[in-house]
Design goal:
- By secondary structure, the protein is of the alpha/beta class.
- Helices cover about 40% and strands about 25% of the residues.
- The chain contains ten helices and ten strands.
- The mean pLDDT is about 90.
Length: about 260
């Protein structure tokens, strides 16, 4: 099977700071990739490169058989992107905003209206479809973002902390939605700090630290013969397993 995303020698530097170091990765259709790492590891930079937001990078990326550098608009058309935080047009209603997004993807009015209505109703926003978004909570805004990222039925879904601000029921629903999308052959690139969710939904875990991939495998293989959680594996590989000692040091400092 040919990878739907191929990354070779991906590097990125800001001034004198090297953010990504020679990233090599193959991602296949129907996979959910959990892309995790500490703050500053290079996750968001990777996402912004894959989505065409950052165009100045070293290395080669091929998506759906096309070079990213030469086919940014096409690749954006088959990709859905849900950022952790995005600027919505607050004076618009969800209906108006999604109509704008749908037209950018050349959807018909009927498609936009039907998909928007059904998705927002499923997210519990039926009574807010025609309400201006300047009064929305973070969770409500995130549901609109999720809807906008999926509205054009993309082949590839890139999620950067997609559960930010969502309540427990919405989190459960999104987890079920990811499995449904996977079942339809969608490829999902999922960045998050919520290790329990990443562990449950991902086929592969790619752990990045200091701009380098330090682990790439299934959760079962990363555990080896042990039964540690992804959170424990993450701590062991990125901090030497001394998180408990650091927490104790902070608590001790408060007593001084």
């Amino acid at each position: 099977m040919e990878p739907i995303i191929t990354i070779r020698g991906l590097s990125k530097q800001y001034g004198e700071k090297q953010v990504l170091h020679d990233i090599n990765l193959d991602i296949f259709r129907g996979q959910i990739i959990g892309y995790i790492g500490p703050n500053g590891a290079g996750k968001s930079t990777t996402v912004k490169i894959l989505t065409g937001i950052i165009t100045d990078f070293e290395g080669e990326i091929t998506i759906a058989g096309k070079a990213l550098r030469d086919n940014v608009l096409y690749i954006k058309s088959i990709t859905g992107y849900v950022p952790e935080m995005a600027e919505l047009y607050d004076l618009l209603t969800p209906s108006e905003y999604l109509s704008f997004i749908g037209k950018l993807h050349h959807l018909s009015e009927a498609q936009i209206e039907e998909r928007s209505r059904r998705m927002l109703e499923s997210f519990g926003l039926a009574s807010h479809i025609h309400q201006r978004m300047d009064s929305f909570s973070k969770g409500m805004r995130q549901k609109v973002l999720l809807t906008s990222g999926l509205l054009h039925n993309p082949e590839i879904v890139i999620l950067d902390e997609p559960l930010s601000g969502l309540d427990a029921n919405a989190v459960i629903m999104v987890k079920e939605l990811l499995q449904a999308l996977k079942g339809e052959g969608k490829t999902i690139f999922y960045c998050s700090h919520m290790m329990d969710v990443v562990e449950k939904v991902s086929d592969r875990i790619v752990l990045i630290d200091g701009g380098r991939i330090i682990a790439d495998d299934t959760i079962q293989n990363l555990r080896g013969e042990g039964q540690g959680s992804l959170e424990e594996i993450f701590s062991r590989l990125t901090s030497g397993g001394d998180i408990s000692n650091r927490a104790s040091d902070i608590a001790a400092a408060l007593q001084g």
